[in-house]
Amino acid sequence: MDFRNTLELHLDSMKNKNLNKFISTVRLEDIILIMPNGTLIREKDKFLELHRSWFEDNDWSLNYEIINIEEASEMAYALININYNDCDEKGNIIKMNYFLNLIFRKYEGMWLLIYDQNTIYK
Predict the structure, then answer these.
(1) Which of 22, 55, 67, 110 is deepest in the core (most CB within 10 A)?
(2) Taking a C-beta distance cutoff of 8 angstroms, is the pair 69, 77 a contact?
(3) Pairing between β-strand 32-34 and β-strand 110-121 as defined by DSSP bridges
(4) Contact 99, 116 (CB under 8 A)
(5) pTM
(6) Running DSSP on this structure, what letter comes out for residue 43?
(7) Distance between CA atoms of 78 and 70, rounded to whole angstroms?
(8) Gene3D superfamilies of this UniProt entry (predicted)?
(9) Beta-carbon neighbour count of residue 39 at 10 Å?
(10) Strand 61-71 and strand 40-41: pairing?
(11) CATH code at 102?
């Protein structure tokens, strides 16, 4: 699968909360995740548990727009604008916009995510 198809699979599986498809696009052994609050996650188990819990939550939804893609023979990145909607424990609506920076690396012919950084903007 080429990079753009892998990227679309990754983003669509996130939007549709399909954990198995999402994980198929991630290199868990090398993953770095930076959360919007600055928390750094490098552990495979923490990354999996965070996404498992997030995908099980039915309150949120998101839409995305790809802003930029750069692709070389072994590495590629995408900058994505995310519009995120959720509810807090009291049912209050939360709207958030953030930039999602994804870096993929080619391993044995497959593009896999190795870096995921989220930056909130107003």
Answers:
(1) 22
(2) yes
(3) parallel
(4) no
(5) 0.94
(6) -
(7) 7
(8) 3.10.450.50
(9) 11
(10) unpaired
(11) 3.10.450.50
The tokens 């099980």 sit on which residue? 56
The structural domain count of the chain equals 1
Check residue 89 and give its pLDDT. 85
76-105: string of b/e by CB count within 10 Å (b at 16+)? bbbbbebebeeeeeeeeeeebebebbbebb
Which residue carries 């983003």 as its tokens? 11
**Average pLDDT value over all residues in the chain:** 96
Indicate if the pLDDT at residue 18 is higher than 90. Answer: yes
Report the pLDDT value the prediction gives residue 59, as an integer from 0 to 100.
92
At 94-108, the pLDDT tens digits run 999 999 999 999 999
The tokens describing 96, both together, are 């958030």
Using alpha carbons, select from 41, 44, 7, 40 the residue that is nearest to residue 25: 7
How far from the centroid of its chain's Cα atoms is residue 110's Cα?
A: 17
Nearest to 63 by CA among 21, 12, 114, 1: 12
Query: What is the residue type of 103?
Result: I
Q: Are strands 93-107 and 75-87 parallel, antiparallel or unpaired?
A: antiparallel
